[in-house]
Amino acid sequence: MKDQTFEIKVGDLLNQVAVDEMTFENKKTNLIPNLNEDWISGKIRLSWIDDENVLVEIEELECALNETCDYCTKPFKRKIEIQWYSSRFTLNKEEINYANDEVLFFIDEKTATINIEEMIYQAVELETPFVLYCPDCAKKHENMAEDEIDESDFDLGWEWWNIVFHK
What is the pTM of this model? Predict the structure, then answer.
């Protein structure tokens, strides 16, 4: 069975200005049920911000998902490569600012650990397109879209976008 622990001790990092780097390979998470047997691999950089905050950067995250094409319904493997994704982990539970777009994660005060599993899940989900096409259907739709575009359609203004405004 693959190691499913995404917990990292950060207690020492909170007490000094420091940066720590590590790699992880073949990690599995139940948050991504369609994760391929290639699991998840990547690099992590932990940076001290202050006595209550740590910046976590994920680099070169790689995984593959078992997907189903939304067009032809055939199963296919979708490879994901994320070059960089970051989030801040904090001890201060009162710091949540809903007006800010920043997503905060929390440091466990008792164990001085962070769990980056949810962060990895969010990074992978952000790479999910609205419509999933297998490679064959993606090529078909790419070619079809290029063939169907008529430059004279652009002269129609708003009507080209399937919205017609009437006075």
Answer: 0.76
Cα-Cα-Cα-Cα torsion 30, 125, 77, 7, nearest 10 degrees, comes to -40
What is the rounded CA–CA span in Å between residue 11 and residue 107?
9
State how far the Cα of 64 lies from the Cα of 79, in Å rounded to an integer. 4
Q: How many domains does the chain have?
A: 1
Q: Closest by alpha carbon to 44, among 2, 9, 16, 91?
A: 9
Q: Which domain, by its residues, includes 118?
A: 7-129
CA 3 to CA 84: how far, in whole Å?
23
Which H helix or E strand runs over 44?
A: strand 40-50
Q: Show pLDDT as tens, one digit a residue, over the chain (167 residues).
A: 345 678 888 888 888 888 889 898 888 888 999 998 888 999 999 998 888 899 999 999 999 999 999 989 999 999 999 999 999 999 887 766 655 667 788 999 899 999 999 999 999 999 999 999 999 988 887 776 555 555 554 444 444 455 555 56
Residue 116, burial from CB neighbour count under 10 angstroms (0-12, 13-18, 19+): buried
